[in-house]
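Hey, quick one: can you model this chain's 3D structure?
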Amino acid sequence: MTSRGPRTVGSTLTIDCLVRAPSTATITLSKNSRTLQNTERVSLTQMEGTNGGVHYLITITSLVPSDSGLYTCEGSNGGSVSRSSTGISIRGSSQSVGLRMTSRGPRTVGSTLTIDCLVRAPSTATITLSKNSRTLQNTDRVSLTQMEGTNGGVHYLITITSLVPSDSGLYTCEVRNGGSVSRSSTGISIGGGRVLSSSSSSWSSSFRRRLRDMLRNRFRGLFP
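Sure thing. Here's the predicted structure for all 224 residues.
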C-alpha cells in the first residue's frame, strides 16, 4: 500500500493498493477498521496495473485533520486473508494563514471608522467578518469591501459611517481553510461627540455673576 500527494489540510491525497489475486477474491478498503464508501470527498476507484494486478485507489480531496487514521486494504479468497495498511496523519495547511486587524478614523459619535483585516490565505479559504459573534452585512451605514494588498494578501474592510455608541463592540475577522480556523479581533468603543465642558459652563456662569455685581455697584444710588 502506497500513497501520493501532500498530507496537509486542504490538499488531495491518493492511497494506492496494488492487488494481484484471483478474480474471485474480495477486496475491502477500510479506515480504522470501518469499510470505506464513496462520499463527496472520498472516491474509491480501480485501475488495471501496467504489469498485472489491479490498483484499488482511495482518493481524498480537501483533506481535514479527521482524515488521519489507519487505512487498510484487505483481500480474501476462500479461507485465506491478506492485508496491507498505511498510517496517514494530516497536518496543518501547507499554505500558512496571515491575519492582521487594524482600524483608522476617530472613534467618536458622527465620525467614520474603517476596520481593516489583512488576510494572506489560500484562495479556497472562507472569510467571515462579525461583530460580537454576529456576521456583518452591508447596511446603509456599514459597508463591507475588499481591496488587493500592495504587498500581497487581501484587505477586507469594514467602513462604518455616522458612528453611534451602539457601534461599539468586538469586531472579528475569521479565516477557515479546510479544518483550520484563524481569528483576529479588535475592540471598538465609540465616545460621545464634542460638548461644552462643565468647566467652561461654570466659568461662563461665574463671569455673568461678576458682571451683574459690577454693574449694580457702579450705578448704585442713581436710582431711588
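One thing worth noting: The helical segments are 198-218.
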